[in-house]
Amino acid sequence: AQSVTQPDIHITVSEGASLELRCNYSYGATPYLFWYVQSPGQGLQLLLKYFSGDTLVQGIKGFEAEFKRSQSSFNLRKPSVHWSDAAEYFCAVVYNYGQNFVFGPGTRLSVLP
Amino acid sequence: DADVTQTPRNRITKTGKRIMLECSQTKGHDRMYWYRQDPGLGLRLIYYSFDVKDINKGEISDGYSVSRQAQAKFSLSLESAIPNQTALYFCATSKEGSGRRNEQFFGPGTRLTVL
To answer: What chain B residue is nearest to A34 in terms of C-alpha separation?
Structure first.
């Protein structure tokens, strides 16, 4: 069965430090990949997405993600974290010609001052 | 105004009660979805609808039903609520025709507590 894993349940970083959130997927064909962010009490907001082409994609709020087919990964990165980045982050994959999104379990990010 | 709205935002109810959660959208999208979010499990798909006459079960449809009253409205019902349906519920929409590229747009969520 298709699945999305986010190995880190909770990550804590200091403000100004770099960040990498991991995402791995299982799928036979080329996936379409998304990262969403959920701030406390809010819905999900799209950070970035990968469909094809350049494997390094830029998103909003200074985030970027790199698709690595050989590792079945789509890790999210940010060079310098801000306190406002504290939130929960979800990786998602689209399967079955757009009929189904599959979300990972999420990674909660805490930011120390 | 928000493109995807959900009502109510919070609801506390008792076991056995019937509950309806409503979702409305002004994005003009054909596709609508209901998810529930539980800590450590991410979002799981309950039902989805690709147009007014199309309703499909998702991963965890047992105990739930839906109604697509119009293109812009998609309601989720719990016929007889039970405590393990306590969760955060999200409605989402997407545009038809983009295949696997469909980005989903989410409402703010409804927090449901079943006592």
So the answer is: B103
The residue assigned the tokens 């379990």 is A105
Indicate which of B38, B57, B100 best probes the interface with A, i.e. most A CBs within 10 Å of its own CB. Answer: B100
Q: Token pair of A42, please?
A: 């809010």
Return the pLDDT at B101: 63
Q: For chain A, state the CA radius of gyration.
A: 13
Tell if the CB–CB gap between B100 and A106 is shorter than 8 Å: no
Q: What is the arithmetic mean of pLDDT over B44-48?
A: 93
Token pair recorded at residue B36:
């529930």
Q: Which of A112, A49, A19 is nearest to B103 (CA)?
A: A49
Beta carbons of A67 and A59 less than 8 angstroms apart: no
Residues in chain A with CB shorter than 8 Å from the CB of B103 are 34, 46, 49
Residue A31: what pLDDT? Answer: 81
Q: Classify residue B112 by burial, with Cβ atoms within 10 Å: 0-12, 13-18, 19+.
A: buried
